[in-house]
Write a structure and sequence with these properties.
Blueprint (H helix, E strand, L loop, with lengths): L31 H8 L2 H4 L7 E7 L11 H4 L16 E5 L2 E10 L2 E9 L11 E6 L7 E4 H5 L10 E4 L2 E4 L3 E3 L2 E6 L7 E7 L10 H6 L1 H12 L8 E9 L4 E5 L5 E10 L7 H4 E7 L2 E7 H5 L8 E2 L3 E3 L4 E4 L3 E3 L3 E7 L5 E11 L8 E13 L4 E9 L2 E12 L10 E5 L7 E2 L3 H4 L12 E3 L2 E6 L2 E2 L13 E8 L5 E3 L2 E8 L6 E12 L4 E2 L5 H5 L30 E3 L4 E5 L4 E6 L13 E6 L6 E7 L6 E9 L5 E6 L2 E2 L4 E2 L6 E2 L3 E6 L5 E10 L9 E10 L2
Parallel strand pairs: 16-23
Antiparallel strand pairs: 1-11, 2-3, 3-10, 4-8, 4-9, 4-11, 5-6, 5-10, 7-8, 12-22, 13-21, 14-19, 14-20, 14-22, 15-16, 15-21, 17-18, 18-19, 23-34, 24-33, 24-35, 25-31, 25-32, 25-34, 26-27, 26-33, 28-29, 29-30, 29-31, 36-48, 37-40, 38-39, 39-48, 40-47, 41-45, 41-46, 41-48, 42-43, 42-44, 42-47
Length: 709
């Protein structure tokens, strides 16, 4: 871990109102402490916000993504900045002789409610990037420091308000501002997401300051303890249901007929021997004679397929099989809870609902949960898969995604795209499915993790009861990701549409299932309708005992193959990014009876490449000092002209890889380079082709690394 000191400068902004508020009232200002109070007040999420705001996000999404009418740009996957050609940020500024990359800029009143940033190296935590928060136009930052030290829950912002997720730093600590906010980073912004509230003009906001932060320390500690020890209100009438429900049958219980709210709801099954039971058993709830909840219990409580324990602020799944939720669910006159067994065999069910007092007013909303599933889902060509589309007024508060991936390779490159109130371009455009669920490097991050607002209850074959012992990359099988919202809820006045890109590294058929949660008025409608047929269509698991043939394609070297000194084979390099049409095909060149010398007699053919395509490969450094890099490649009758860069700098003249027949290339000098985070990123861009060439493919053998004194 790279540890750097952080410092704070003080900015006091006078606004109407006072710091310590105990209730979120419409005529009181928004402050850091009022937001902390709101974060741990479950009643508040069941009411439409008194302080009108819209949730926005600044992220490193690819700026080539402009419209679905241009599929190539819309699904472009370079959602980061690693060199000056990417520019997935606002701009670059010079401040006091130093370069700062502006990653967020907002004019007007607002509050940052979520910050996420990943490790730059999937095997090495830490960063030396300094993040700075400039509030209300001040020339000095109100917050400044190493962005991992600040936001991993081990420094100034305590856990769980800040959190070291799987290969990520995540913060939910609120940073309000009255007039505007600018956030900068000291180096090329890798991936990032800054989620913030944009308040309407009539909302007064008191800007964050360190004086207020210090004064609020007791309240901050209290909020942390509440989040880590979630309990529902003990007061209320308890209604129970204990039944054996036959196949295809339904059992119901009526709740007290008065103005009230469910404050806690739990379901426990007799056994979970068949993991599909959490998809086949469905929870239904009606409020005031209207059904607003239809969702399989695994998706409703967040555990997915099977029994996968975790604890969150709104939901807990215990190892003994009890699944609980603490969403506050108000109603005016009546409510009914039902459990449906869509399966063939009887299921023993214990259900308990605690009903407490509620004062219904114009801001009160009904709790909704809908489910959508689909199998199969074709991964190529890339597409947007709709979680839910809502019409009317409401607040979106979370979702649980369970996917079935039939192959080892990573499935979740797709970005969330959230359209609010008829937007033509989404106000929230993400950088990857795992980023949306607050972790990173999804191909490797298959271990269990939990946090009050997000969790990965199951991935590949690991959960809380079976932790990942090693560091392998394998995402085959089921994965369940869940996210719930507090300060980052999404109010909508007329509509909300949430799409997630289906963006896998493999052409295959996946299974998708999503339980979504929102509050809405009585006439708010959803695209997700009850679907018993699809709930029974649980995607079949692939053979989990074998590796994928398409992954284990690296050809074996012959016993007398030549081995270059200090060589890193191309097929051993991690693919950081590539154009979607390019296909990697390792080949044994001795078996193809080609004459010449290649390292270990192998190379990787980059098939179906076209002029303009780009591939980026990560090469681990062999020394902490500068190294001389030499590329060995192949020339052939259908190869193109490539432009080569290392760590964002062009390092050699364009190379024409055409030859009348396949032969090894000459040694291509990449120059002497310094590693970044113990690695080099080799960028290969197809810039043209020889008039005699039949195509624009290319083949890469290896890179040799020699330390330079």
């Amino acid at each position: 871990m790279i540890n750097m000191p952080f410092r704070f400068t003080f900015s006091v902004v006078a606004v109407l109102g006072f710091l310590f508020v105990t209730e979120s009232l419409g005529d009181e200002p928004v402050t850091m402490t009022s937001l902390l109070h709101e974060m741990t007040d479950r009643d508040s999420v069941a009411r439409y916000p008194n302080h009108d705001f819209r949730l926005k996000q600044a992220s490193s999404y690819n700026r080539a993504s402009k419209t679905p009418d241009d599929p190539k740009g819309w699904f472009d996957n370079i959602d980061r900045s690693t060199n000056d050609s990417h520019k997935n940020y606002v701009r670059v500024e010079e401040t006091g002789g130093r370069k700062e990359y502006v990653v967020m800029e907002h004019e007007g009143a607002g509050a940052i409610t979520r910050f996420w940033v990943p490790w730059r190296d999937q095997l090495k935590p830490g960063t030396d990037v300094i993040i700075r928060f400039y509030l209300d136009g001040d020339s000095e930052p109100a917050i400044e420091g190493n962005m991992f030290d600040l936001f991993q829950g081990k420094g100034l912002i305590p856990f769980p308000l800040a959190h070291e997720s799987l290969r990520s730093a995540v913060s939910f600590f609120p940073i309000p501002y009255a007039k505007g906010c600018k956030v900068t980073m000291s180096d090329q912004p890798f991936f990032f997401q800054l989620t913030y509230r944009e308040y309407s003009d009539d909302v007064a906001v008191k800007t964050f300051s360190m004086e207020d932060f210090t004064a609020a320390k007791p309240m901050i500690d209290t909020a942390c303890q509440k989040l880590l020890n979630p309990t529902a209100s003990a007061a209320g009438e308890v209604v129970d249901l204990k039944k054996s429900i036959g196949g295809g049958k339904e059992e119901s219980v009526s709740l007290p007929a008065r103005e009230a709210a469910i404050t806690e709801l739990s379901v426990k099954l007799g056994n979970y021997d068949d993991p599909n039971v959490t998809r086949h058993v469905v929870l239904k709830i009606s409020f005031d004679d209207k059904e607003t909840v239809w969702c399989p219990i695994g998706d409703f409580f967040g555990g997915g397929i099977g029994l996968n324990p975790f604890q969150g602020w709104y939901r807990t799944v215990d190892a003994d099989g009890k699944m609980s939720c603490r969403w506050v669910m108000p109603y005016r006159d009546n409510a009914n809870v039902s459990v449906v067994n869509l399966g063939d065999v009887p299921v023993d069910v214990e259900l308990s609902a605690t009903v407490g007092d509620w004062k219904w007013d114009s801001s009160s909303m009904y709790f909704h949960s809908g489910w959508r599933g689909q199998y199969p889902v074709q991964t190529w060509p890339y597409s947007d898969w709709n979680y839910v589309t809502l019409k009317g007024r409401g607040v979106y508060v979370g979702d649980t995604l369970t996917i079935m991936n039939p192959v080892e390779r990573w499935w979740g490159e797709g970005d969330e795209k959230i359209f609010v109130d008829g937007e033509s371009f989404p106000s929230i455009f993400g950088t990857g499915t795992e980023d949306y669920y607050a972790y990173s490097w999804g191909g490797r991050s298959t271990d269990f993790y939990e946090h009050p607002f997000h969790a990965q209850p199951f991935s590949h074959k690991y959960n809380k009861l079976n932790r990942k012992p090693g560091n392998e990359k394998n995402t085959k099988g089921f994965s369940t990701e869940t996210r719930t919202r507090s300060l980052d809820t999404m109010p909508f006045a007329s509509s909300l549409k949430l799409d997630m890109e289906v963006w896998s590294w493999t052409d295959c058929e996946m299974g998708y299932g999503v339980g979504a949660y929102w509050y809405g008025d009585a006439d708010t409608t959803s695209s997700n309708k009850p679907d018993p047929v699809e709930a029974l269509n649980v995607p079949p698991l692939p053979d989990m005992s074998t590796a994928d043939p398409e992954v284990e394609t690296a050809p074996k070297a012959s016993s007398n193959a030549t081995e270059f000194k200090n060589a890193v084979e191309c097929e051993k390099m991690e693919v950081v990014s590539k154009s979607e049409t390019v296909v990697l095909k390792p080949q044994n060149l001795r078996k193809l009876k080609l004459k010449g010398t290649w390292n270990l007699d192998t190379h990787v053919l980059f098939k179906d490449a076209q002029v303009g395509d780009v591939v980026e490969l990560r090469i681990p450094a062999s020394s902490p000092s500068a190294e001389k890099l030499v590329l060995h490649a192949t020339r052939s009758q259908d190869f193109g002209i490539v432009r080569l860069s290392v760590n964002g700098k062009q390092v050699a003249p364009d190379v024409d890889l055409y030859a009348a027949k396949p032969i090894p290339s000459e040694a291509i000098q990449l120059g002497t380079c310094d590693s970044v985070n113990s690695a080099y990123v080799l960028r290969v861009e197809l810039v043209g082709k020889n008039p005699q060439s039949k195509d624009a493919f290319f083949g890469l053998d290896c890179v040799t690394l020699t330390p330079v004194e």
